[in-house]
Model the fold of this input.
Amino acid sequence: MSNDRNNHLSDSERRAMQSAPGGTPPAGLEDRTVAALKSEGLIHTRKGGLRMKVITYAAVAAAMILSFVSGVVVTKTGPAEPSGTGVMQAQQPEATTPVAATIAGANEYMLLMIQEKGDDAGATAEMTPEEEAAYAEQYAAIVDEYRQWALDRQAEGRLVSAEKLDDAVIRLTAESKSSTLPEGRVLGGYFLIRANSLEEAEQIASTHPHIRYGGEVEIRPIDHSTGVRE
Amino acid sequence: MAGRGPMQPFPRFATPTEDMRDPQPPVDLDDRRLVEAYAKERDEDSFRALYRRHTDVIYGVVFRLLGEPSDADDVVQETWLIAARRLPEFRWESRLRTWLTAIAVNCARNRIRRRRTHEGDGPGEVTELPAPPPIDHAIDPIDMARAIDSLPNGYREVLVLHDVHGHTHDEVAEILGIATGTSKSQLARARGALRRWLGRAGGERNDVKRSQ
Done:
């Protein structure tokens, strides 16, 4: 009996083992694990800083306003003035950027920026002056992060358009009309980006700070099969 | 976090699996820094960094050990809870990942014991069957996953740690609390059981009589 001769894996066996399905942790597991540790006192929550719950709807909305402001938008003819309403100008990708070359003729995906419209009032009311200063500093950093993400996508030529949605709302059904935002999930704005696949769009969306700060990004492919556009 | 996709393809080696390590194991110095920071301040950032360095791999191990249904999420969370409690006393006698994997394997074992109340841990056979040769034809990865799931717990642990995740026999021994020699003999038996299962499954699929 020569068992030693069989004492190794074949290439087929190895390949099948490596590609056996499953085994990627879901995106929410990290936050759930952190929450579990916090509830047992194994992670100390930061004092005076912005935690996910403390960031109010208003703060995130303000951050998104500034991310949708174009700043200086460079076109082929030179810097353009930001438009008065803070609308980002749609740009044709420059052929010279490395990303632009990969997304010429790519699909379009909608990134819907969603968050909970929670309780706004008095986030800073109970803070000490030191806590408030730390809060203001981190708030400014968050706004920068949101804006930088938008500018980066624009520089890559990925950004088709982006808008912040105002809070003024009319919700209309056959039975009713409402002028208030719903409790729960609220749409704050959108980005329309270019990507080659839903997976690529997901990868891009996952880098948006909105997710880390407690928001949600809904990714939807544009269905051109019935579109009005050429 | 190191890549979220399926495991990367391995280069071919002439000799067996000692060289099949998980790609880019984290530098131990970084682990030490993070563990110290976390143990001192219990701060969130250090914990998240540790989580991101090790969870992909640990989740993979746990997922393969549990089979269906998968409580891998719960087990991984449980693992980090236990690890977080014990990290201040971690003595660096082994690599951090080895230590984490040991905790994860134990949690997975407990989970399995609770649900499969009538399955034993040891091998089913009493007599030593001749070892089937390695399988050379293409294997459907789903069949492989089922085959691994069908193994008795002890065999599955050794096979997943050594063959799927590239741990050495010394590391497997440390993780499972067994002797290195035991790891080697268990692995040989595990591979044999795996091949017998795949042979039966393949035979049923192809409607061909088993050749052995």
